[in-house]
Amino acid sequence: MDRRKELKELYKTIKPDMGVFVIRSIKDNKCYIHGTRDLKSFINRVKFQLNFGSHPNKELQRDWTRYGESGFVIEILEKLEYDKDEEKTDYSEELRILQIICEERLAQEGMELYKSD
Predict the structure, then answer these.
(1) Contact 117, 56 (CB under 8 A)
(2) Is the alpha carbon torsion for 51, 54, 57, 59 positive or negative?
(3) Cβ(20)–Cβ(78) under 8 Å?
(4) Element (H, E) at 98
(5) Buried/exposed 39-54: b ≥16 CB within 10 Å, e otherwise
(6) pTM of this prediction?
(7) Model confidence over 2-21: pLDDT tens digits?
(8) Which domains does the chain have, with CATH numbers?
(9) CB 76 within 8 A of CB 95
(10) Burial of residue 111, with CB atoms counted within 10 A of its CB: 0-12 exposed, 13-18 middle, 19 or more buried
């Protein structure tokens, strides 16, 4: 097998990190939280939307526009491990539960969630 095919096959077996991330405002106690199957790609997508003024959460978008990217911290709160059963492909319920747990923990820390539109 040539090197290109090897790399292509390797790429197909790589599973992206999945879990929950948060965007915290440095200016106040607000945050946006989201669970996703591909943390790196989704964080990049959200940053792109925010930088171009097209994020669906209008309250977060307004603050991002006001304070700029430097007014926020983006961090991964929890990663979700893949099941040992290779047949499992739907992790939406696990991600939803993990997001709820993270939301509760942030609320206990005094963080306020950006309202969903």
Answers:
(1) yes
(2) positive
(3) yes
(4) helix 92-108
(5) beebbeebbebbeeee
(6) 0.85
(7) 888 887 777 667 889 999 99
(8) 16-81+89-113 (3.40.1440.10)
(9) no
(10) middle
